[in-house]
Amino acid sequence: MRISTQMMYEQSMRGVTNSQSLWLGYGEQMSTGKRVNRPSDDPIAASQAVVLSQAQTQNSQYTLARSFATTKVSLEENVLTQVTSAIQSAQEKIVYAGNGTLSDTDRASLATDLQGIRDQLMNLANSTDGNGRYIFAGYKTEAAAFDSTTGDYAGGTTPISQQVDSARTMQISHTGTEVFDNFTSSAKPEPDGSAPETNLFKILDSAIAALNTPIADDQTAADALTASVDKANRGLSNSLDNVLTVRADLGTKLNELDKLDALGDDRALGQTQQMSDLVDVDWNSVISSYTMQQAALQASYKAFSDMQGMSLFQMNK
């Protein structure tokens, strides 16, 4: 086989080019901190990194969804804390209204107090979030949940749900019906077996109307007032039990969201470590390789420089 000057030149030049390419490659890894900067660097690791990146994005989206859910559930819990206090205040007024020594004027004053509590509860039932959406209106968030005059529910029938993890969709709100127009299965029944009034506002409206009705010395009217007060007392007690049940559900959801957040944080940490193992540089290895390749490149330059001054004719002398 003949070895020409041109062949020797091309081989030397190829050696310089290869050494320079490897040296620049290690330099790029050091500047970016990444072992895989393009798919050709490591096709298998690059494809796995794409899949892992998608998983990281999805995990971040669920973290954001849980943040939204926590805010919404916490807001409802704060409102229902005030609702609980208002119902308890109404109960105190109703119990006092059963005092037989009260005059018509006294009862009218209690009716005024109950009207104030009723207005407070209506305002709470029509509470909005920071964006003007009614929190107890289901998916019909653009309109008030309750008619302030009649107390009838005007919101949506479906509570809002949110997917908070890959396999968990959570109801993050309650409709006004579930909170203000519902009793639990253990509610106190009416003595005569009739269907109870479950709407909190109508319970209060009936009690207010009864207290505003003069009795004077009319025993029939007095008996009717006693029956109305007793019925209102049962209704308020049942409404309070229902609100407390809803609050217990909210507390359970907040606890679950906390646990899902912790799980999401652990998942994110693990994904970050996996991504680092796939594409990040091993600094000890890359620095060593960079230094060695730099020495090899310098040797290639020296060999090429020496070869330029040589020819086959000179070698045969």
Automatic annotation (TrEMBL):
Source species taxonomy: Bacteria, Pseudomonadati, Pseudomonadota, Gammaproteobacteria, Enterobacterales
GO molecular function: structural molecule activity
Major place of residence: other
Annotated Flagellin N-terminal domain residues: 3-141
Protein name as catalogued: Flagellar hook-associated protein FlgL
GO CC annotation: bacterial-type flagellum hook; extracellular region
InterPro entries: Flagell_FlgL, Flagellin, Flagellin_N
Similarity annotation: Belongs to the bacterial flagellin family.
Compartmental location: Bacterial flagellum; Secreted
Alphabetic keyword roster: Bacterial flagellum, Cell projection, Cilium, Flagellum, Secreted
One GO biological process term: bacterial-type flagellum-dependent cell motility
Source organism of this protein record: Enterobacter soli
Pfam families, alphabetized: Flagellin_N
